[in-house]
Every structure is written in C-alpha cells, then in structure tokens.
Specification:
By secondary structure, this protein is α/β, with parallel strands linked by helices. 58% of the residues lie in helices and 8% in strands. The strands form 3 sheets. A 6-stranded mixed beta sheet has the order 1-8-3-4-2-7. Strands 5-6 form a two-stranded antiparallel ribbon. Strands 9-10 form a two-stranded antiparallel sheet.
C-alpha cells in the first residue's frame, strides 16, 4: 500500500510561498488570451494595498492572499488559471516600491525589479493586447511617475490607454501611489520587504489544462466554504466563555437571523457590529481578535448576541426593504418619514462596496425612530455623503472613518455637522464627476439616474427590484437613423453616457426603444399602456429634437438640480 501511494502521480504540485519567492524564482507567468482582462478597480486595489499595510504595521507573521493556480505551457511559462488580478496588482505594487527606493536602497530596488522583470523578460505578461502597455509603463523602471501623475485637462500624457484593462492598470498605479505616498523611507522599505517575504499564496501547478480546470472548478464550486460570518461565530460564541445554555440560545438566535437576512447581508451586519455597539471600526478585515476586542469593548457577549444583534438585525431588515416603520404624530412627521424612506430607497441602489452608510443609518433609526424630523435631516446629509463616496469624491481609505464619525456623533448637532460636512474639493469633485460620461457598470448609471429622478419637484424613489431600467435617448451604438440626424460617431461617443441623455422606463419599453429615432422613442416613453412616466423621463416630453446641444444643456441643468438638492454651494 505504502509503495503504491509513493509511486502514484496526481499531476498537481503545491507549495506555500511568498510573492518574492514566487515572482523572483525560476518561473515566468502569462495570462492566456481566453482569460478575462484585468478588471480590478480602485476599491479592490486599495483594499489589497491597505490590508498589506495594516498587516505589516500590525506585525503579522504573514498575510495570506489565497490560491494561485497555473499550468505550464509549451513555452515554459506558467499560464495563470486563477490569480491574474493579484499577479498584475502585485507587479504594479512592486514597481511602485522599486521606483520609490531606487535612489537610496539599491539592493532592495534590485530585488523588487527581479520580481518585475528578469534579463529583459517580464515576470508577468498579461493578455497580448495589454502586455506592451504594462511592460512600457510599469515593468520598465522609472516610468511610474508619468503613469501616476495627475495630468491637467490641457496636458497630453505620454501614454495612451487603448483598452479598459490598460486604464484600470493606470488607475491601480495611481491608487497605490495615493495609498502609500504618505509613508516615509523607513516605513516604505519595511512594507516592501513585508510584501516580498510575508505576503504568501498557495501556489499550485497542474500538469495540464484539464487538471487545472478541474482544480479551479473544485476550489470554486464544491462544498459550502466558511464565510466571515462562520469565523466570527466561532469567535463570538465559542471563544468567549459563555455557559452552555447561553451558547445554545445564541446559536439559535444567530441561525434565525442569518436565515432571514441571508448570508452576505448577515456577514455585513456582523462586520459593522463593533461600530454599532462600541463606536469603533475594525480596521483589519478578518482579524477576529480585533473584532472581538472592539465588539465586546462596552457590552458583554451575552448582551450583544441575545439582545443587540436581534434588534440591529430588525432595523437592518427594514433598511434593506426601504420601509422604516414609525408612528407619525402629525402631517409634518408623516412627510418627514416619507423623506426618510425616499432617501433610503435611493441609497439601496449603491453596491456593497458603497455600504458604509448602513451603520450610521441603523444607529440613527435605532436611537431616534420617534424623531422623524431629526431622521429626515440626518438622511438628507447621509445621502449626500454616501453619493460623494459613490462618485469617488471621498478617498477610498478615508470612507470608513468618515461614516464612523457620524455614528460617534449620535444626536450632537455640532459633531454631526462636522462629520457630514464635505470639503470644497470633494463638493467640486462630485459636480465634475456628474458631468463626465458614466461608461462603466450599468448599476452606476441606474443609481445616478434614480437619484436625479428623486431630485425633481415631483420626484420619488423606487426599489432596486422594481421594473425600472435606464434608457439612453441617444443610443450608445450610433445607428444610421441617428447619423442622418447629424450625430457623428465622436459626438455620440462623448454624449451617450452623459446624465443628460438618461431616462427611466420599463424593461419592455427599453427593448422596444433600442436604436429607434427620437420621435419614435418619445411615443414609446409617453404612450406605453400601463407604464408610469417618471419625472426624469417626463422632463423631455416637450423636446422636438435631440442634438448634442440638448444633451449637454440638459446635463448641466440636471447637475444644477442635484447640487441644489444636496446643498452643494
């Protein structure tokens, strides 16, 4: 039996290794063209860089960045089956470190460059369409300054991003610079060495692509993986010295709430519990000891699990439904609660990455449900701050603390005003971003259109699940009928995704409108049986034409309306 097992070949080879060993060793890595392109945005890059920084500052023995799966190709390279986003982001991170330390710490700079390029060959080669860009502007020493510079509108950068992936690589470089430029020489050297030696992965090489595909499928589809909620459960219930009967009651409560909220929402609620109960943010994701220390800083485990968790879960459920229950005493309070619910519904269009607003919302509703006028004022300011983050006017690394300050302010109006205030640069950045095309992600366009709809004098919000879709009046792909009306391809490309070109209709209307002429679209918008006409759509009823001038003028008008609604002077 032992001899048979020793001779058995399974076609997989695995090792735990650091990124320094992985990228500085014998292997060269390539992304096959069949893989999706690089697609990490600011949030993912900032999270990874921030987590590594916090782990380094916290003295962690290592920081595990997951599994890397590859297969050796005919050229001797390792084709990346799973791990492309981490590989390319780490390459950009190493290049940033290399250029930061090159003038004063040659040995460290050389070690970093050996992980980026060896003997003129890139250690990591992305898809062919993006390989030259990464080589020229990241992997080649001394080019990162140009890539990360904040170019003025009248300046022409020396590089050109020909694909979305290249634009995201440039954004990743700027995000890393913004996250780490504040570090001094000693701190940047320490972090670079930590990432080289302590950022570890489980590196698995498969002998062929079939084995790699089976492995990837098994890692991502088989079994129910432990969620962050499962790990917190072990810490909160099993690791806090509760009596057996209390553990049993806590486990039953836990499971009941998880069934109601569903796994992802429940995990999110658990992650913000330290902020809700102790007014402290957990800054190292996945650090159970920190979660425990903050969550139980002001309440005992039994109180948190059996009393506070169910109460906060109830409020969270109301928020996710967009209907906050209250008992108004008069018409004024009734109108105030209508404002609250309108704003909550609009906030629900924001994605999980923009959910910092939920903790302040839970805290305010829990403490001040019987004060509708206070809640209306609170949510008007919370909405503005949340959309400032959504529009990237607030730095990603500042967001958790900005909303934590709102929670800590409670009902103290002086502290609340300070916590909710926007800096001049943030307000102007919001307005500037609203005036730019919303090209990426359908949900972003729908969220901003829904918020504009609510800002009209007769405006209102609707739930994210309702049959309301975003329709481009001018189609995103120019057709002959629009070209005949004077639209050039360049003008259409510049205007199609401006907010002035958005209306809201049902899915059926959207499908029928498609690339039809403007007059035909208006007939579909305004004469569709049973379909509501939303204010943002009603706004173009009297138009007799749709030109670049109309789109740009409407964009400016809608932005001005939002600015007034948000009190952006």
């Amino acid at each position: 039996m032992a001899a048979r097992v020793q001779q058995q070949e399974i076609g997989l080879h695995s090792a735990i290794c650091s990124f320094g060993n992985l990228l500085g060793g014998e292997h060269f890595f390539a992304v096959p063209y069949l893989q999706r392109p690089y697609e990490w945005g600011e949030a993912e890059v900032a999270d990874m860089a921030g987590d590594l920084l916090l782990a380094c500052q916290g003295g962690y023995l290592n920081y595990f960045l997951g599994h890397i799966v590859g297969v050796r190709n005919e050229r001797g390279q390792i084709e990346i089956v799973d791990g492309q986003q981490r590989f390319i982001t780490t390459t950009i991170l190493f290049a940033y470190f290399r250029d930061r330390v090159s003038a004063r710490n040659a040995p460290l700079s050389e070690a970093l460059q050996a992980c980026v390029m060896q003997a003129g060959q890139a250690r990591v080669t992305p898809r062919p369409s993006d390989a030259e860009f990464l080589f020229d502007w990241v992997q080649t020493p001394g080019r990162m300054d140009a890539l990360t510079k904040d170019w003025a509108r009248d300046e022409t950068p020396p590089f050109h991003c020909a694909t979305d992936a290249q634009a995201l690589m440039a954004l990743a470089a700027r995000t890393i610079k913004g996250k780490l430029d504040r570090l001094g020489h000693e701190a940047i050297d320490k972090l670079a060495l930590f990432v080289l030696d302590r950022a570890v992965v489980d590196f698995i090489i498969a002998d062929n692509r079939t084995l790699a595909a089976i492995l990837y499928r098994g890692m991502n589809m088989r079994g129910k993986q432990l969620s962050p909620a499962d790990l917190i459960k072990l810490e909160a219930i099993e690791g806090t010295g509760l009596e057996p009967e209390v553990k049993e009651a806590a486990a039953r409560t836990w499971e009941s709430i998880e069934d109601r909220l569903k796994r992802d929402n429940f995990t999110f609620l658990l992650e913000i519990m330290p902020l809700l109960v102790s007014r402290q943010v957990t800054v190292r994701p996945g650090d159970l000891m920190e979660w425990r220390r903050h969550a139980f800083a002001s309440v005992d485990p039994e109180t948190l699990l059996l009393q506070l968790l169910p109460v906060y879960a109830d409020v969270f459920e109301e928020i996710m439904a967009g209907e906050i229950a209250a008992t108004p005493k008069d018409r004024g309070e009734e109108q105030a609660m209508a404002t609250v619910n309108r704003l909550v519904k609009g906030l629900l269009f924001l994605q999980p990455g923009d959910r910092h607003w939920v903790a302040p919302a839970i805290s305010a509703i829990h403490a001040h449900r019987e004060r509708p006028h206070f809640l209306a004022s609170f949510f008007q300011r919370l909405d503005r701050l949340a959309f400032a983050c959504f529009l990237d006017a607030v730095r990603h690394e500042d967001r958790a603390e900005r909303f934590a300050a709102v929670v800590r302010a409670g009902a103290d109006e002086t502290r609340l005003s300070h916590a909710f205030s926007l800096r001049n640069a943030e307000a102007s950045s919001m307005l500037r971003r609203l005036g730019e095309p919303f090209k990426r992600h359908t949900w972003r366009r729908r969220a901003v259109a829904a918020r504009i709809n609510a800002a009209f004098p007769a405006g209102y919000s609707f739930g994210p699940a309702e049959d309301v879709t975003l329709e481009h009046v001018l189609p995103t792909s120019i057709s002959a009928v629009w070209a005949q009306r004077g639209w050039s391809a360049s003008a259409a490309n510049a205007c199609a995704n401006l907010v002035g070109n958005f209306v809201l209709v049902t899915g059926a209307q959207n499908n029928r409108a498609s690339q039809r002429a403007f007059e035909d679209k208006q007939n579909i918008y305004f004469n569709w049986p049973g379909a509501p006409v939303h204010p943002i759509t009603e706004d173009i009823r009297r138009n007799t034409d749709w030109t670049e001038r109309h789109v740009r003028a409407r964009t400016e008008r809608l932005i001005a309306m939002l600015a007034a609604d948000w009190d952006l002077a």
